[in-house]
Amino acid sequence: MSRPVHIVVGSVMGTALNVATEVAKVLETLGHNVRISPAFDGNNLYQTEDEVLLICTSNTGMGDLPENILPLYALLTQTPPNIAGRHYGLINLGDSSYPNFAQAGTTLDEAMADIGATRVGTPCVLDAIYVDEPEEEACDWAKKWAQLL
């Protein structure tokens, strides 16, 4: 069964947005209706009861959240929506040469779990040290992830 997917992007240099765009194409070819929020404003996290959230974020600084995904974190931690049982997935881009590798995605994953959302599958963690083509790796992951929806 195809389900609508909302991809919320946290990106500094554009890599996470490129990954999200390519993943959206894969999901659409699999029959999913996809919308991308490259600058989430805190509204319409889930538009329908069956929509699945896919967080695609990079890290900045010492594992900090990119500025354009801060509204999502604020929503989840300051005025949490009632999303208990709602489904989400995570694509987490990082660089293991930094001490807080992939912390931004982990922070968002924990915030979603804290308010009762249910993660579908395991996160896609893309380490810039080992992954030359993050879009390709994420698309391969997305094909498997979509089967779990």
Automatic annotation (TrEMBL):
InterPro entries: Flavodoxin/NO_synth (IPR008254), Flavoprotein-like_sf (IPR029039). Keywords: Flavoprotein, FMN. GO terms for cellular component: cytosol. Residues 5-146 form the Flavodoxin-like domain. It holds the Pfam family Flavodoxin_1. SUPFAM superfamilies: Flavoproteins (SSF52218). One of its GO terms (molecular function) is oxidoreductase activity. This is Flavodoxin/nitric oxide synthase. It comes from Saccharophagus degradans (strain 2-40 / ATCC 43961 / DSM 17024).
